[in-house]
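quick one
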Amino acid sequence: MYTNWEELRSDCMACQRCGLGGTRTNLVFGVGVPDAEVVFIGEGPGEQEDLRGEPFVGRGGQLLDKYLDAIDLSRRKNIYIGNMVKCRPPQNRDPKPEEQEACIFWLREQIRLIRPKIIVCLGRISAQRLIDPAFRVTKEHGQFVERNGVWMMGTFHPAALLRNPRQKPDALEDFLALRDKIREVCTHTY
Ligand code: URA
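structure w/ uracil:
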């Protein structure tokens, strides 16, 4: 268990807990402010993220930033963004269960140190891991559940919205519901 963010970060950056450690260009630790009350969790780095070492910097990331901006959130200002796995799976395949298992240690430590009030799962992989193994994004998106004093919500993965733009209005509703929840439970996000 870590008590120091920089120690956690530097150990994580050297991680070889699974095979992805041998194929990554950059480990993608996460981005945002250390006192964030709202944390977003995606699935894993894609090609652009692997090249740049930052989550959600490809086309999906640009779309995510638009939704964030719509409710006055920004990765530079008042939130934190991380992923279930920190290294890119080759050819963007789904992370294997053993890779997720090895990597979730780091995410749990990050969340333990940040102590967010709200966690937003971006897409099925993180919602099924962090909220409910049977989570269905199309049915349960935008619904908040409280777990150990933390409010959790799952919404559409930005890449899914690029593939299926008809879901964009629903995604916007989820972000508006998030804004309401932030106003209700957060003290310094806005
Ligand atoms: N998709 C994700 O789930 N995470 C990223 O960082 C980029 C794309």
